[in-house]
Prior knowledge:
Mean pLDDT: 91
Low-confidence stretches: 1-26
Shape: globular
Radius of gyration: 19 Å
Helix content: under 10%
Strand content: over 45%
Largest sheet: 4 strands, antiparallel
Order of helices and strands: EEEEEEEEEEEEEEEEEEEEEEEEEEH
Amino acid sequence: xxxxxxxxxxxxxxxxxxxxxxxxxxxxxxxxxxxxxxxxxxxxxxxxxxxxxxxxxxxxxxxxxxxxxxxxxxxxxxxxxxxxxxxxxxxxxxxxxxxxxxxxxxxxxxxxxxxxxxxxxxxxxxxxxxxxxxxxxxxxxxxxxxxxxxxxxxxxxxxxxxxxxxxxxxxxxxxxxxxxxxxxxxxxxxxxxxxxxxxxxxxxxxxxxxxxxxxxxxxxxxxxxxxxxxxxxxxxxxxxxxxxxxxxxxxxxxxxxxxxxxxxxxxxxxxxxxxxxxxxxxxxxxxxxxxxxxxxxxxxxxxxxxxxxxxxxxxxxxxxxxxxxxxxx
Length: 329
């Protein structure tokens, strides 16, 4: 495990660095969570839904082995609420709130079903299934949803790239009371085969894809134009979860380096400069989720990381105070 201390960069932003400790120094222990969820059957990816009453906010967690999505309160006990869905192997999840579609505003959760070869849409927080699409994608893994120019789009990553198609974009519309997806774009020839994570960043017109085999992150425009790669040499294992959070010092991209003890890598989301590394108790992390604003029990934000402590597939999710994980001031 890398040692951790602090360094000054980016105009007063304190970040984590990796010096060699001299004799007699004590290794800084990993950041500990405030709560750990009950065990699931091979869990993978979390997402956060913020309720109109923030005290009722939820964390959703895909459970591949259980064929469902687990739901927890966004509290300091990670209180289990329920499961929903009937999947063969749910993998990725993306939540979008306050989107206008079908004549009303909705909060929606998109869930990929790898072995079901489809993506399902659920209303939140009642978790009623309101649509299904991407049935033409073989083994969909990651999903990221955004609203842009009064349209709703979902980006899907398949397990295996077919030709130059490593990313599929669908426009989501309503037909006969159900939400459907119409494919309008494919791209991604720069990707290796076998990816899982995609993350849209609308303020910067960017889409990030974790290239597990190349151990870096590929950047596209939201319209599928290749921009660049970054992170080469930073990651030592598979690049997995990606999130972007706005801080007082600017936007920060966080990505998980899926080592035995996960290392969370920080980058400036504007310049892609590597800002440092945080080590927590989470292990072999796949998906991560973040909310950077105030919640009643997480007044400075919430960070959620899937964890596989036994090396048998994801067992749980760990809840952290975001300020404990972000670069220090």
